[in-house]
Amino acid sequence: MKKVLTVIISAIAFGLIAGLVMVGVSVFSTKLGIMNNNAIVNSIENATSDNSINTTATKSIIKKSRPNNNVNYYDDLSDLISDVMPTVVSITNMQKFTQNGYSIFGYRVQPQEYEAPASGSGVIVGMTDEQVIILTNNHVVQQSTSLSVTFNESKTYDAAIKGTDSSKDLAIISVSKKDIDPEILHDIKVSNIGNSDNIKVGEHVVAIGNALGIGQSVTYGIISAKDREIDEIGNSSKLIQTDAAINPGNSGGALLNLRGELIGINVAKSSGNAIEGMGYAIPINVAADVIETMSKRRDRETIPESEQGQLGITARNIDAQTAESLDMPEGIYVFKISDDSPAKNSELREKDIIISFDDQTVKTVSELQDLLRYTRAGQEVSIKVKRLDGGSYIEKEFKVKLAKKTVTETKKTEDNQQNQNNPQNNNGNYYDPFEDFDDIFRNFGRFGW
């Protein structure tokens, strides 16, 4: 009996001790859990208390996005931005616009030209002994009557266009180093060019540009998609899509990865009530040849009209819609060559479609006219065309020596431009610039179109 009682008492004691231990463990673990939860809450509060992109949460995302620890990523976005901001510039210009109007009878009236200020961005991609070389969008500088660049949001200097490529919507401009204050010149940087072929969907990116024309600003996001073709942009390149905000004025600005490398040039955004977070950039690899070739060109110099060269053609635009519907190349359709003109004495033919002038891509008559403003009479330029031959278009390139534009020829050019925008010419007869397209349609008939 005594032994049984001893066993019972021992069992009770063991149960009490075990129970106390379990209670202790439970209390301790509960307290530990509360401490850990508090740490989590504090971490969230710290991450959300500051709306800037330099947060603990952001840093952790950046670290997780690293493919390996040997790559030189920035741990802090503010450091990245501080380093790359001097590579991005603001661009301001006065652009020439043409407004077409209609009479009360529905006829077009003579177009009115006017100038308006415009703004954009650019990225410093090189420096020579004499110049700072800047990459931007063609649409930022096209039809500009004056152009200026602001470095580090401080001082503004006159700039010049070196070359453009409308098919890629890219342009190279320059600022003379002798015009830049030494302290400003000391602070500006050349962008570190990346490899846009290596980008990945989901990779974090930073966009910098002169948003709304009020100064440089930074947006942050990811690469949403690659190789996007956007008809509205009219760009032949496959674009990078990002949800980093791209706003008016960002055009020509930088899209950078978290190594601070330039991987794209911001070009446009999709807009609408049902659209959000769809911005686009031109891959920097697409711009490589533009940077290489255009940087070596001389700055465009505005030439007095009396000294400008002229081709002696009447032409019309073949836009993307017309090109698609008629299965023709996009470009400048030559439907008339004037007698005794440089074009008449060259390999250029009527019905040719001009796609390049002086080694620069052109798609519209206005772009060609803009280039002629910087080309002197007597200068020999290369012209590239698409020519219909045996049912298909072949590419041909040849040289043309421009002639001096006389007063009569200047007036003829103005009349031709007016006639393209007005159904009636000076004789009161209906003017159809596509009248000789009948031959093309007959050719299409032979080919089964």
Provide a quick synopsis of the model.
With 449 residues, the chain is an alpha+beta fold. The protein has ten helices and 22 strands. It has three domains: 2-49; 71-300, Thrombin, subunit H, CATH 2.40.10; 305-446, Pdz3 Domain.
Can you offer a commentary on this structure?
There is one protein chain. The chain is α+β, with helices and mostly antiparallel strands and about 450 residues long. The chain is built from 10 helices and 22 strands. The protein is about 30% helix and about 35% strand. The strands form 4 sheets. The protein has a 7-stranded antiparallel sheet. It has a 6-stranded antiparallel beta barrel with strand order 9-10-11-14-13-12. The radius of gyration is 32 Å and the shape is globular. It starts with a helix and ends with a helix. Mean pLDDT is about 75; it is low at about 25-70, about 405-435 and about 440-449.
CATH hierarchy: architecture of the largest domain: Beta Barrel
Largest sheet: 7 strands, antiparallel
CATH-defined fold name of the largest domain: Thrombin, subunit H
Calculate the terminal CA-CA distance, rounded to whole Å. Answer: 115 Å
Mind telling me the CATH class of the largest domain? Mainly Beta
Please mark out the parts with pLDDT under 50 across 5 or more consecutive residues, or reply none. 25-71, 407-436, 440-449
Strand arrangement in the largest pleated sheet: 5-4-1-2-3-7-6
Helix content: 25-40%
How many structural domains in the coordinates?
A: 3
Backbone structural class: alpha+beta
